[in-house]
Amino acid sequence: MIIVTRTVKVDTNAPAEEGFVAIYNITPKVQQHLVESYVANGILTVFLPGTTAAIGTIEYEAGLLSDFKNMWSRIVPRDLVYTHKFLWEENNACSHVRASLMGASLVVPLVNKRLILGQYQQIILVEFDNRTRNRQVVLQFMGEKGTAEY
Amino acid sequence: MIIVTRTVKVDTNAPAEEGFVAIYNITPKVQQHLVESYVANGILTVFLPGTTAAIGTIEYEAGLLSDFKNMWSRIVPRDLVYTHKFLWEENNACSHVRASLMGASLVVPLVNKRLILGQYQQIILVEFDNRTRNRQVVLQFMGEKGTAEY
Amino acid sequence: MIIVTRTVKVDTNAPAEEGFVAIYNITPKVQQHLVESYVANGILTVFLPGTTAAIGTIEYEAGLLSDFKNMWSRIVPRDLVYTHKFLWEENNACSHVRASLMGASLVVPLVNKRLILGQYQQIILVEFDNRTRNRQVVLQFMGEKGTAEY
Questions:
Q1: Domains and CATH numbers, chain C
Q2: Least CB-CB distance to C59: which of A4, A47, A96?
């Protein structure tokens, strides 16, 4: 078994005019690390250390990204009365709530050195915070060299 | 370590009168593949390649399935103004947004050849798309033969 | 490869006056099991067997916990007309819907015997049910002894 842990660094910025949501396609960087990991079959765990951003997948198309952002403004609006902001004066309570709802981890199977993603499915980092951040997404490849039944 | 990758094929149809949500209980097929995998202890990764369906768990009871569908109609309605639909004329922007919120992966521990699910907890494929689809859910069993501490 | 499966027992109570959401920080117990597992590098799978509770991460701060609870009351209110409750008379349809939306599994990478969590990021069990429960969260550590590239 091989275990290879890597980080993808992303400098993020989720501006107010986008509803404090910014979506980054990290799939190309993931693919590059996959090639270097020598793991042929197994799993990739993608994890976001932090509490105001999340990991997921989406069809990375501009119109859809806008629709996804609008969903967050509807279900977790930024202009509600939150308790967290009064304590910390960071005004980013909605960022935390959104991140906890969406989730910090994703696991993708690897088969014959390929991520088993759909044709249009991209792995994304979603930044919800209200200030610029330097994110370090953790990738962990775990598995074996060789050819799997598929 | 053993790694066994299988697919569960599901022909899906999420009709408009159900709010474009259809829920499929794939647990029996997963159990069958588990028996054939010879993995006694480790993890099962369930992954949906695609951007308009999702993976999760639920108590698979008709009333609850209806309640779950109604939740989607409330928080991600289909009759909003979306940007994605104007670009692609597929009219399935809400399907994408729902799928990205719910998530494409699930990981379930295996102990002594058993999935550690709750008594009423079933693994589900949730179809959100507005046309029939032929889904291939990926199962990846990863672990060892033998008896684990539990 | 080492696979170690443990359970964290939590007696839960999500009272009506908190909107039927109670949030438990299980990170200290997870850390203790990690030390005893002797797994240095690999993954931790956290799984909730059951259909009315969920697993996730959050900054465990009182104001934010309140904000997170309020989000659930907004997007999956308890006083809607649900179908599930008429069948089972348990009145906890909203608990099921919330749990299925949030998700039952979380995967966290381990590097050099450390969980790669953010500074303020805690692993939580979220109880949504309307009666006291005795939860058994499953932890499964899977990986190797030794030092990983990081």
A1: 2-9+33-142 (2.60.120.460)
A2: A96
Contact A103 C63 (CB under 8 A): no
Residue that is written with structure tokens 């465990």 in the block: C60
Phi, psi for C103 (deg, rounded to 5)? 110, 150
The residue-averaged pLDDT of A12-25 equals 96
Q: What is the interface size between A and B, counted as CB pairs within 8 Å?
A: 105
Instruction: Provide the pLDDT for residue B61.
Output: 94
Q: What is the mean pLDDT of chain C?
A: 93
Question: pLDDT band for position C85 (50/70/90)?
Answer: low
Asked if B102's CB is within 8 angstroms of C51's CB, the reply is no
For residues A50-74, give the mean pLDDT.
96
* pTM of the predicted model as reported, rounded to 2 decimal places: 0.95
Task: Report ipTM (2 d.p.).
Answer: 0.94
CA distance A47 to chain B (A): 13
**What is the DSSP track for chain C?**
-EEEEEEEEEEE---GGGTS-EEEE-HHHHHHHHHHHT--EEEEEEE--SSSEEEEEEE--HHHHHHHHHHHHHHS-TTS--SHHHHHS---HHHHHHHHHH-SEEEEEEETTEE---TTEEEEEEE--SS-EEEEEEEEEEEESS----
- Judged by CB atoms within 8 Å, which residues 13-52 of A form the interface with C? 43, 45, 47-51
Q: How far apart are CA A128 and CA A72, in angstroms?
A: 10
